[in-house]
From TrEMBL:
Absolutely required for transposition of IS1. Belongs to the transposase 27 family. One of its GO terms (biological process) is DNA transposition. Pfam families: DDE_Tnp_IS1. It comes from the Bacteria. InterPro entries: Transposase_27, Transposase_27_IS1. Keywords: DNA recombination, Transposition. GO terms for molecular function: DNA binding; transposase activity. This is IS1 transposase.
């Protein structure tokens, strides 16, 4: 009677859970040995030809994006294609959720002009900053209309904001209650400084440059990464 030979347990660590209960698990299309972890059920190979499959690629992508590198620069450093990088940025952005907003806080709201695709296609970034923690709690990217402003302001209203400081754009007077709204001098100092930081860190937001976002989807994903990771 023939007995089945058990799979050999390899003395290598799983790159995901760091456990040693790893067995051989066939080969890939390129005839590379594939391994399987019995603890976390992760399949992997030891030497990846395609850099995009490495476990830390998303973490490096986030780090370089927050440092303001462009798509092609990041792709060259990570040694992956620009198309793959764009897909990863969109995928990361979709998994990021808007942070929970605390009640009865004070916020600063401002808008920043940029463009998508060409310099004729103007678009506005509207976002709200917690005056105490200096964190971005909500943002919206669209045309400069009341609807665009309302998506950010409504979030603050639901959180029962104590005070909302804005610039002198007249649209805010129609969208906010007088008791809640303030156009006080120096009231938007923090968010104005944040605007400068954004333009410094994110190349696509620089005023005089050939760099720009060609896709609203990519632009939104980059902002989520920058604000909320």
């Amino acid at each position: 009677m023939r007995h089945s030979v058990p799979k050999l347990v390899m003395v290598i660590n799983c790159p995901k859970c760091k456990e040693k209960k790893v067995i051989k698990n066939g080969t890939t299309k390129n005839n590379k040995q594939q391994y399987y972890c019995k603890m976390c059920f992760y399949r992997f190979i030891q030497n990846y030809t395609n850099q995009a499959y490495k476990l830390d690629i998303n973490q490096k992508n986030v780090q370089l994006t927050k440092e303001g590198l462009g798509i092609r620069s990041t792709a060259r450093i990570l040694e992956i294609s620009a198309t793959t990088l764009l897909k990863r940025i969109v995928s990361i952005g979709r998994k990021i959720n808007q942070p929970i907003i605390s009640k009865c806080k004070t916020y600063e709201v401002d808008e920043m002009c940029t463009y998508i695709g060409s310099k004729q296609n103007f678009i506005w970034l509207v976002y709200a900053l917690d005056k105490n923690s200096k964190t971005v709690v909500s943002f919206n990217v669209a045309k400069r209309t009341n609807k665009t402003l309302s998506r950010v302001l409504d979030t603050l209203k639901l959180s029962e904001a104590k005070k909302i400081f804005t610039g002198r754009l007249k649209n805010y007077r129609y969208l906010l209650d007088e008791k809640m709204h303030s156009v006080k001098r120096f009231g938007t100092n923090h968010i104005e400084r944040k605007n400068l930081t954004l333009r410094t860190h994110l190349k696509r937001l620089n005023r005089r440059t050939i760099c720009s976002s060609k896709s609203l989807l990519i632009f939104t994903a980059v902002l989520k990464i920058y604000f909320w990771i």
